[in-house]
Amino acid sequence: MICLCLSVTISRAETALSYSHDERSNPREELTATTEDSESDIVLDDTNPSDLFYIALGDSLTAGIGSSVEDYLRLNAFVPQLVEQLRSEQGVYVENHGIPGITSGQLLTYLQEGPGMTQKLNQANLITITIGGNDLLSALNTEDIDENHLQTRLQQYRKNLSTIIEHIVLFNDTAAIYVMDLYLPFPEEHALHETGTEVIPTFNAIVQDVVEAYTNVHRVSVYDTFYGHAQDYTHINEQDVHPNDEGYRLIADAFYETISD
Fold first, then answer.
1. How far, in Å, CA of 70 to CA of 127, rounded?
2. Residue 260 burial by CB count (10 A; 0-12/13-18/19+): exposed, middle or buried?
């Protein structure tokens, strides 16, 4: 067991954070979403055997919440930017399954029960995953933050993430899978900065442990990029932890550089 040695107690009022730059979604309702429902969904080129079949899975980061909207599309979110980079090399067909507010447990349920997901996973060449931010925020948005509560959340996150990867690999053991770690959205003066610097690296260590068990699963790290730049790359000044356009550009670059390695 990893000891976080937390000695702080922070009230719920201090830890209340926005899950959405627009409005918070109900993840239970969103679990039934299809790709047609996602405003960040972009399909490039008709599917053909030479295309890269890319499935983006995850939470509001995959959905692009916090990025600017142009003609009802979040073209500055990381998925569209990554697709643009990938298209410089080959044709790309993409489906965006980002669901705002979703936790790792809910993503697992979506993969297991979502309509047509087994077939989609089987066809994919490339899969990206952003998950864990809502697990983290749900752990922090409590009356009291204590080590036992966090350890329970961490253990559940490890179990869920491991099962998510196992489930994908069960249906497709050749697709390249890229899992993004968590960034610190709290500036130094924020009430949760100190706690975040202790807890988030532990979440990220779990990501590293899980991906290391597979040759085709990789970690995409953005923690160092965002560290100390929360006010530059997120909407934290509005009590919203989501990235802004510049933050999403950096996330897209991190994915592309890791994929290209």
1. 25
2. exposed
Q: What is the pLDDT of residues 126-173, one digit of tens each?
A: 999 999 999 999 888 766 677 888 899 999 999 999 999 999 999 999
Reported pTM: 0.84
Handedness of CA 138, 141, 144, 146 (dihedral sign): positive
